[in-house]
Each structure stands twice: as structure tokens, then as C-alpha cells.
Amino acid sequence: MSLIGPLCLVAYLMGVPFGVKGTPVAVKIAIAYAYPPVLGVLCFLVLLLARSTRGRMARWPLVLGWFWVAGGTAFDVTATLVHTPDLSREANLVARTLLDSGHGLAFMYAYGATAQVLALLLFGGVWTAFLRHRNPWMYAAMQTDPRSTFDFVRKALRSSAFWLLVPLFMGLTTHRWHLGLRWFDLVPHGYDAHVLGVGLAVALVAFVTWLAWEYRWRARIPADG
Q1: In this structure, what DSSP letter does residue 162 have?
Q2: Is residue 224 part of a domain?
Q3: C or N terminus of the chain, fewer CB within 10 Å?
């Protein structure tokens, strides 16, 4: 966990130069080439994290989480390829940089497939690791003797803020679903930032609400059983 969070931050910051005017094209291309290796390392670390405990996982949350992430990715990618198979209308800044610098369509398909699969495995892997670590995390938080629901949520997040990646990734996936719908003109255009913000906010509220529910449920369980 100690490396995954900072690396996710690095991956996010790597995207900043693509939106800054005047950034040399060579720098952007170098960063674009670095994305798959960084994502690959993150996937490997998340796999180790998921395998570091034998905690039980409820089947339906696991399936629903993977459906949300995989479905959003597949829907967005499919919608893109249906409407612009030559990627001429692709607006992703990383992809746009590679296309405009002369990278061929075959390379772009291979690069895009690799990056999309790795991102999917990262998002889904964090969800799987979270479900495996949920009970140990909640048990440890209860051992801090919280005095209220708010105190429990505060102590739980302070002890392992890493798991805030869960609502972050789930909220980001909302944007993927929206992009797919936008390609098919099923939603108004021009509201990407609004949808992303609402998706992140809803995911965070849902996560904190779940933490509060966990405390109230576990507080009813007698200490001896």
C-alpha cells in the first residue's frame, strides 16, 4: 500500500504536461511511452496487495464492482471505435499527441489496448484488494474504541486513507460511462467536468456512508462474539 498511492499520484501528474501549452512534443511522447510500464507496476503491486490476505469476499459486490469498471471501459472503447475507427475524432490528449506526431493506427490500437487493459486491471484490482481487506480494516478500526460514528470514520480513514482510491476509481468510471453515452448522443455534450465531479462526489459519499453503516452494525456485535 505504501507504494501504490504515491505511484497513482505520479500517474495522475504525468497527465498534467499534456494540458499545458508549450510542453515539448518529445516530452509528451516520452511520458506517453512511460504510461504502460507505470500502470504495469501498479497492477503488480495491487496483485500482491490482494494476495496478502485471505479475507473473505462477498461474491455480488465483487461481481458488481468488476461489471461497473469493465463495463464502463468496454462501453467507452466500443463507442469510440464505432464512431471513429481511424481515431480522427479521438480527443484523449495522450492519444492525440501520439496520433499527431505520426504514430500509425496499428501502433495506436496496440498502445490503446495495452493501456486500457492495464487501467482496467488496476481499477478492478484495487476493488478486489479492498474487498479482501475490508474485514481486517474494519476490525482494526473498531479496536481503536471509537466513541461515535464520526469518530470511527475519522479513525478508519486516518489509519488507511489508501482505500479512498476505491471511491476515486469508481467515480472516475462514471466518466467512462458518460463518454460512451456522449458518443451515441444519448446525453448532452459539454458537461464532462460536471459529470466527473458529481460521479466522484457520489462515490465518496457512498463510501463514507458505508463506513458509518459498518460501525453501527459492528457496534451491535457483543465483544465476545
Answers
A1: G
A2: no
A3: C
- For residue 1, the model assigns a pLDDT of 66
170 and 68 in contact (C-beta within 8 Å)?
yes
Counted domains in the chain = 1
- The angle that helices 165-183 and 4-13 make with each other, rounded to 10 degrees, is 40
> What is the reported pLDDT for 221?
60
- Whether residue 225 lies inside any domain: the answer is no
Look at residue 127 and tell me if it is in a domain: yes
Q: Which three cell numbers stand for residue 179?
A: 463518454
Q: Residue 60's pLDDT is what?
A: 94
How far lies 45's CA from each of 3, 112, 136, 177, 181, in Å?
8, 22, 19, 27, 33
Does any domain span residue 180? Answer: yes
Q: What is the pLDDT of residue 225?
A: 41
| 3-state SS string for 29-51 | HHHHHHHHHHHHHHHHHHHHHHC
Alpha helices in the chain (DSSP H): 4-13, 25-50, 59-83, 93-100, 105-142, 149-159, 165-183, 192-219
Average pLDDT by stretches of 10, the chain with 225 residues: 86 94 95 97 95 84 97 97 96 95 97 97 96 93 93 95 96 96 94 95 97 92 49
C-alpha cell at 193: 467536468
Domain enclosing residue 40, as ranges? 4-219
